[in-house]
Write a structure and sequence with these properties.
Strand order of the largest sheet: 1-2
Oligomer: single chain
Helix content: 55-70%
Shape: globular
Structural class: mainly alpha
CATH topology: Neurolysin, domain 3
Radius of gyration: 24 Å
Number of helices: 23
Amino acid sequence: MRVLRSLPALLAALSIASGFVSCGKDENMEFRQFVDDHTSRVSLLERQGSLAYWEASRSGREEDYLAFSRSQMELEKIYTSREDFEYIKKVRAEGRLKDPVLRRIADILYLKYVGNQVDPAILQRIVDLSGRIDNQFSVFRPVVDGKEMTTNEVYTALRESTDGAYRKKVWEASKSVGPVVIKDLMELVRARNEAARAAGFENYYRMSLTLSEQDEGELAAVFEELERLTREPFLAMKRELDSELAKRYGIDPEEMRPWHYQDPYFQEAPSVGEVDFDAYYKGRDIAELATVFYAGLGMPVEDIISRSDLHERAGKNPHAFCTNIDRSGDIRILCNLVDNGQWMETMLHELGHGVYDKYIDRELPWLLRTFPHLCLTEASAMFFGRLSQDPGWMKAALGLGDEEAARIAPALAKSLRAKQLVFARWVQVMFNFERELYRDPDQDLNALWWDLKEKYQFVKRPEGRDEPDFAAKIHIISSPAYYHNYMLGEMIASQLGDCLKRRFAGRGGETGVYGNRAVGDFFREVVYGPGNILPWDEHVEKVTGEPLTAKYFVAQFVEEKD
């Protein structure tokens, strides 16, 4: 397997030392100047927009979301320039660019401009609607028996309560944001489709994939194969799971409904069996555990933690995300930590995004100082997030004894397998729903949502329910045409894990992750450092030695082990 081990080696292979290469009579000078001018404008606006969204997510104030919408619109306006777009098309068509870095930048700019060749009024409507819905989600709190609940309280109730009637009320309340946002959401969907058609695409979903260098047909084939490979293992696991949960609630397995699972969407596997995963993190400082771990890899994150907003409060966005403010080191995490397993995983996950952003080589041109695709940063986040349920990692991080680590290892392996199977089926719902949403937003979407949940998750719809439950899933609003990248990230994470095993094989060294600086070196130099020099699929192949494949994910989580 031939892998360029560091960014300097990659830059040398591309015949550049830093910045842009000089090409003979410097025929690329004009485009270089265009890129410099573009970067000076866009980098400032992107930073302003990132800071505005950060403040809005922390405060929940409408005026802060309006400020974010204004800054976002100023950024989008740059890419509506027909003159700039025609210039980029001309440069690419003429093949004038000899420098591979410049050619990559031209490709990236083309994809960014082509999706914005629409009436600015449409873009303004999209930005305004997105900001308004984000604000509604940020301040919304479900109400049960006259009492507001936080997101953490909803999850706690669904994890712990055995009162079926109460669980149903909590589950229904968690979906009650749907009717609040549905009108704006459908207007947003139609506006996105209008913009896509104006740019020459069939619909917004197809445009989004194309502009992110993905092919809908290829993705569909990957997900069809994944559906086939996971169907029977998932059904077998779910039958066992439903039997255990039904005993807990004192019902027959046939009576299981959506509120009997511990996650409002059944996107996480419920905790059952003899190991209380959460108990190992009770009373522990989740942020400190993660900080010590990343430091041991040679990737310190104290600077990220110091800028972050980690704890729950009124008005604050109830979800979690990592944001790269300026592509120059200002990286932050927003989350709502509780001392349990879910938030340990989330913290490791979000810092997996953070270290990717942090360790991209800052000598790269600003436009290349990011990950090649969302699925790559998700792969980093997934790889590290999984460790919260790894017995070796828990032994090192939590100080477990050898006997205790060995005792819980089989249960943790079973739990992680169930988690991945559940997630693989849930992603099918999101992937197929969003494709259909943008293909035909006028169809019966309430029914479609439950049709897909029954088809892929085998979860029975509530009798007589006709509510926009899909609209309660914030990703449909704030991260459209994105969810499938979580699953691609899981596949790439498994492929990266196998790659690491092969790199360490025969060297007699420690192959675990905790405290293994060689693992940190691999991620920093090989995965993160090159930034967006190559398209995502080429980067995956260069890093791992083969194209993206589901076989490592399947071998790790789908196939039964002896």
